[in-house]
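Researcher: Here's the sequence for the chain we discussed earlier.
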Amino acid sequence: MATTQPARPVEPGGAAAPAGLPRQPGPAGVIRYWAAAKAAAGTAEEPYAAVTLADALDAARRRHAARPEFARVLLRCSFLVDGDPVGTRDHTTVQLAEGGTVEVLPPFAGG
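Model: Thanks. This is the structure I predict for it:
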């Protein structure tokens, strides 16, 4: 007779979390804000724990919900992930790495 065990949460990358431990939100790194993004966030940088760029930005929007300008500034920004431009790629497809860096770059005058 087969027994059924409760499913364990799956970690990013497909590994099951150890029994009794909650699922981790994803790799941890830092988001750095520049110029108008820095002013809108009220900080130069903050940590992320997310699997994708979309997840990290959604969490940042929630953290800064009391600062409505923050979400508006993000709409105009470009992003670098570990030094690589994201460009027009869908943010849900941009994977983040443990110890990685997301640079949030608003449009700059003259460039």
